[in-house]
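Appendix B, record 7
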Amino acid sequence: MVRKVLSLSLPPSLYKEYEKLAKKSGKNKSQLFREMIFLYEKEKMKDDFYKIQRKVSKVVRKKGIYTEEDVEKIVFEER
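Structure tokens (predicted):
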């Protein structure tokens, strides 16, 4: 796999915390950064899902759909 180099500028105190975190977790700084990006993306996807869920929830409540049974009734009525 081809790798690209990323350079970051951090305040000294944050850099020290980052080094401590890498050491404590038993990872090198690159591994830790990759893991942090992965976790960020996972949390972002979860947040996006909940935003969509809240929007859909408002729409279906207006239509009188409150339970999974209500959804099943609608699905099976259309078949």
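Remarks on this record: The first helix runs from residue 12 to 25. The radius of gyration is 23 Å.
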